Each structure stands twice: as C-alpha cells, then as structure tokens.
Amino acid sequence: MATTYGFEFIRNTAMVDANPRSYTLKTGESFKRGDLVTVDANGNITKANDTTKDNVVGVMATSISSAKAGEKGPVYDELGNIYRVSYTGADVTANTVGIGLKNSRLVDTAVVDGPLAVHAIDTNKKTMDVSIVKRLFN
Q1: Are 107 and 97 in contact (CB under 8 A)?
Q2: For the whole model, what pTM was predicted?
Q3: Are strands 72-76 and 21-24 parallel, antiparallel or unpaired?
Q4: Which pLDDT value is given to residue 108?
Q5: Could you tell me which residues come within 8 angstroms of residue 105 by beta carbon, excluding any fewer than 6 positions away?
C-alpha cells in the first residue's frame, strides 16, 4: 500500500497556480503539511476530523508546531484543487461524492455525507485523487 503524507496537492482543474492563502490558526494546535482543515467556533483554522461533513477551508501547505496566539498559516484553498490522499475502507469508483474522513490526513470510504468527491482511484496503492465539494468559501 502506498502512503501519502496527508492531502497532497496534485493540480487545479482550471490550471490555477497553487498559491496558499494565510489564515489565523487555532492557538496551541499543531498542523502537518497535508492536513485537511476547517474552522472552529472562533473562526480559526483547526484540523478536520471524522465528524467533519462540510465547511472545509482547504489543506495546510506547511507544518506548524503549536500555533501561537494570532499566528497565521498557509492553506491551499483554491476552488478546483485536486489532492491525492490515502484511504481506508472498501474501494469506490471515480465520481463518488460525499466521501468522509478517518482523520485530517486519511479518507475513510465507509464515512458517508463527507466533504470530498473522488476523481480517480488507485486500488493497488490505496490512494485516490479528491476535491473538496463542501467548502466554507466558494
């Protein structure tokens, strides 16, 4: 099984450059490059998890250890971005919409009503190319 390092930026369907934008991070939270992120009740970036169904902002573009108050971090957030990520669970077909998460770095195909759409899948490597369809900002 091939393992990705979380969500890896592959391309943008509109050929837009991968230029991450800065967002304020949740104080004290650590992030790894490739974490799928959303916002907390205070409007700060936090890691997505297995209960995240929508309001995804994007993917962390760098690793940050224990964010300080007011610290900003870069997030890939362009509409049309495609990311490669490892998955667990049964194989699914391309064009499946509503795939969910095991955690901020791994897709679980058993989780339904999730924020992701599958564009391509490699069942031998257990990786898939996905886009974010339930985004906070469009």
Answers
A1: no
A2: 0.92
A3: antiparallel
A4: 92
A5: 5, 6, 7, 32, 34, 35, 36, 85, 86
